[in-house]
Specification:
Order of helices and strands: EHEHEHHEEHEEEEHHEEE
Structural class: alpha/beta
Strand content: 15-25%
Shape: globular
Length: 236
């Protein structure tokens, strides 16, 4: 049975330090790295840009991935993006990324619920990153029926790294339901306070509150690349 790699990408956006063509090339490298290190994987690309990519670029992406979801017409992105565009706080710049990741995962779960495919594990990988030769498959030895994720700290608070994480396909209903609860929580915070939490601590909070089985990864994740927001190098 194949693993499913979900790439969450935002190429056509107005935030971040990389221009469009650089982000697009990074995305192509992300896809190529999965084909290299997980050649049998099924790749679903969820593009959460604020605007549509040029058709020729979409056509090229369609040749390299197995399923493409575009979200630029998603009502939440169309509603929230203009609101955040006029903010200057770093938390709001990260909030647009948070919106994109949530919408991407919710749209992924929606697609999975309607398709006739099944998988071994589901991996989420960010579009500015790529796998390298340190990547180790999260096999059933330690990860059966579990979320596999690496812990890190946001200042002094424990969080989970969302650049690359995975879960056993057999618990997809649990994870899908968890993301619905997380999204309801985030929207309540946004409507009440006008701010969104960064995704990582919210994932940590809900996984533990709902006692979802977790394997905290200790070895290197096997990813490299850049943060889209500030261009910082990633080597994990």
């Amino acid at each position: 049975m194949k693993n499913l790699f979900c790439i969450v990408s935002a190429v056509g956006v107005d935030y971040g330090v990389f221009p469009y063509q650089k982000r697009y090339n990074q995305l192509l490298e992300t896809i190529a790295s999965i084909r290299k290190y997980q050649p049998s994987a099924y790749i679903a690309l969820v593009e959460v840009s604020d605007k549509s990519l040029p058709q020729q670029d979409l056509d090229i992406l369609g040749q390299f991935v197995d399923h493409l979801i575009t979200c630029y017409e998603h009502p939440v992105i169309k509603k929230i993006t203009p609101t955040l565009a006029h903010k200057e706080q770093d938390t709001n710049l990260f909030a647009r990324k948070t919106v994109g990741e949530f919408i991407a995962m919710l749209e992924l779960f929606k697609w999975i619920s309607t398709c006739d495919l099944s998988f071994n594990r589901v991996y989420k990988l960010s579009g500015r990153l790529k796998l390298n030769n340190k990547f180790v498959t999260h096999d059933a030895t330690h990860y059966e029926n579990k979320v596999a994720v690496m812990k890190r700290y946001w200042y002094t608070n424990p969080t989970y790294l969302t650049q690359l994480w995975s879960f056993d396909y057999r618990i997809i209903d649990t994870i899908s339901d968890l993301f619905e609860k997380m999204w309801t929580f985030e929207m309540s915070e946004f409507n009440g306070k006008g701010m969104l939490h960064v995704l990582e601590p919210t994932l940590y909070k809900f996984l533990h509150e709902h006692t979802v089985p977790i394997h905290e990864i200790q070895h290197p994740l096997g990813i490299e690349g850049f943060h889209g927001q500030d261009g910082a190098v990633v080597d994990l």
